Protein backbone atom coordinates (compact mmCIF):
# COMPACT_ATOMS: atom_id res chain seq x y z
CA UNK A 1 0.00 0.00 0.00
CA UNK A 2 2.81 2.43 0.81
CA UNK A 3 4.47 1.73 -2.55
CA UNK A 4 1.23 2.77 -4.27
CA UNK A 5 1.51 6.11 -2.48
CA UNK A 6 5.10 6.59 -3.65
CA UNK A 7 6.65 5.65 -0.31
CA UNK A 8 9.40 3.03 -0.68
CA UNK A 9 9.49 2.30 3.09
CA UNK A 10 7.84 -0.65 4.72
CA UNK A 11 5.55 -0.16 7.71
CA UNK A 12 8.25 -1.81 9.86
CA UNK A 13 10.81 0.78 8.75
CA UNK A 14 8.40 3.60 9.50
CA UNK A 15 7.64 2.16 12.95
CA UNK A 16 11.38 1.90 13.71
CA UNK A 17 11.92 5.50 12.56
CA UNK A 18 9.09 6.73 14.78
CA UNK A 19 10.42 4.81 17.79
CA UNK A 20 13.92 6.19 17.22
CA UNK A 21 12.61 9.74 16.87
CA UNK A 22 10.39 9.38 19.91
CA UNK A 23 13.45 8.64 22.00
CA UNK A 24 15.14 11.89 20.92
CA UNK A 25 12.16 14.19 21.50
CA UNK A 26 11.24 15.80 24.79
CA UNK A 27 8.62 13.58 26.31
CA UNK A 28 5.20 15.09 26.83
CA UNK A 29 2.80 13.62 29.33
CA UNK A 30 -0.21 11.75 28.02
CA UNK A 31 -3.39 13.78 27.95
CA UNK A 32 -5.58 11.50 29.99
CA UNK A 33 -8.35 12.88 32.14
CA UNK A 34 -7.12 14.11 35.48
CA UNK A 35 -9.07 13.08 38.56
CA UNK A 36 -9.89 16.48 40.11
CA UNK A 37 -13.25 17.75 41.31
CA UNK A 38 -14.28 21.36 42.02
CA UNK A 39 -14.60 21.97 45.76
CA UNK A 40 -15.68 25.63 45.64
CA UNK A 41 -13.75 28.81 46.16
CA UNK A 42 -11.34 28.07 43.29
CA UNK A 43 -10.19 24.78 44.77
CA UNK A 44 -9.94 21.55 42.76
CA UNK A 45 -9.04 18.38 44.63
CA UNK A 46 -8.88 14.69 43.79
CA UNK A 47 -6.77 11.58 43.46
CA UNK A 48 -4.29 13.37 41.17
CA UNK A 49 -3.61 16.30 43.49
CA UNK A 50 -4.92 19.73 44.31
CA UNK A 51 -5.09 23.13 42.59
CA UNK A 52 -5.97 26.46 44.16
CA UNK A 53 -6.99 29.16 41.65
CA UNK A 54 -7.32 32.88 42.38
CA UNK A 55 -8.23 35.63 39.93
CA UNK A 56 -6.38 38.83 40.80
CA UNK A 57 -6.95 42.30 39.39
CA UNK A 58 -3.99 44.46 40.46
CA UNK A 59 -5.04 47.24 38.05
CA UNK A 60 -8.40 47.90 36.38
CA UNK A 61 -6.91 46.91 33.01
CA UNK A 62 -5.23 43.71 34.24
CA UNK A 63 -6.41 40.29 35.30
CA UNK A 64 -4.01 37.65 36.58
CA UNK A 65 -4.69 34.01 37.33
CA UNK A 66 -2.68 32.75 40.27
CA UNK A 67 -2.38 28.97 40.51
CA UNK A 68 -0.98 26.97 43.38
CA UNK A 69 -0.27 23.28 42.78
CA UNK A 70 -0.05 21.08 45.86
CA UNK A 71 2.29 18.08 45.85
CA UNK A 72 0.58 14.95 44.61
CA UNK A 73 0.75 12.14 42.06
CA UNK A 74 -0.41 14.37 39.19
CA UNK A 75 1.44 17.57 40.18
CA UNK A 76 4.00 17.38 37.35
CA UNK A 77 1.29 16.84 34.73
CA UNK A 78 -0.85 19.62 36.20
CA UNK A 79 2.12 21.99 35.92
CA UNK A 80 2.85 20.85 32.35
CA UNK A 81 -0.77 21.40 31.30
CA UNK A 82 -0.94 24.84 32.90
CA UNK A 83 2.33 25.92 31.29
CA UNK A 84 1.13 24.64 27.90
CA UNK A 85 -2.12 26.59 28.24
CA UNK A 86 -0.26 29.72 29.33
CA UNK A 87 2.03 29.53 26.30
CA UNK A 88 -0.95 29.06 23.99
CA UNK A 89 -2.81 32.00 25.53
CA UNK A 90 0.31 34.18 25.31
CA UNK A 91 0.58 33.44 21.58
CA UNK A 92 -3.12 34.13 21.02
CA UNK A 93 -3.07 37.48 22.81
CA UNK A 94 0.28 38.57 21.30
CA UNK A 95 -1.07 37.80 17.83
CA UNK A 96 -3.92 40.19 18.52
CA UNK A 97 -6.64 37.58 18.13
CA UNK A 98 -8.47 39.18 21.06
CA UNK A 99 -8.66 42.95 21.60
CA UNK A 100 -7.74 44.12 25.11
CA UNK A 101 -10.61 43.79 27.56
CA UNK A 102 -12.62 41.38 25.38
CA UNK A 103 -11.61 38.11 27.00
Structure description:
The chain has a domain of 35 residues. Strands 1-2-3-4 form a four-stranded antiparallel β-sheet, with helices on one face. The mean pLDDT is 76. It has 103 residues and is an alpha+beta fold. A hairpin with a 2-residue loop joins strand 2 and strand 3. The relative contact order is 0.11. The protein contains two helices and four strands, in the order αββββα.
Strand content: 15-25%
Summarize the biggest pleated sheet.
4 strands, antiparallel
Q: Radius of gyration, rounded?
A: 21 Å
Class per helix and strand makeup: alpha+beta
Structural descriptors:
103 residues; alpha+beta; four-stranded antiparallel sheet
In short:
By secondary structure, this protein is an alpha+beta fold. The protein is 33% helix and 22% strand. The protein starts with 10 loop residues before the first helix and ends in a 9-residue tail after the last helix.
Please give the structural blueprint.
Layout: H1 11-24, E1 37-40, E2 43-46, E3 49-56, E4 64-70, H2 75-94
Antiparallel strand pairs: 1-2, 2-3, 3-4
Amino acid sequence: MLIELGCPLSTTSIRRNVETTRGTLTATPPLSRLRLEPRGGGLLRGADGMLALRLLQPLPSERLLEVEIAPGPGAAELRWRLESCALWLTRVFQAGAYPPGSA
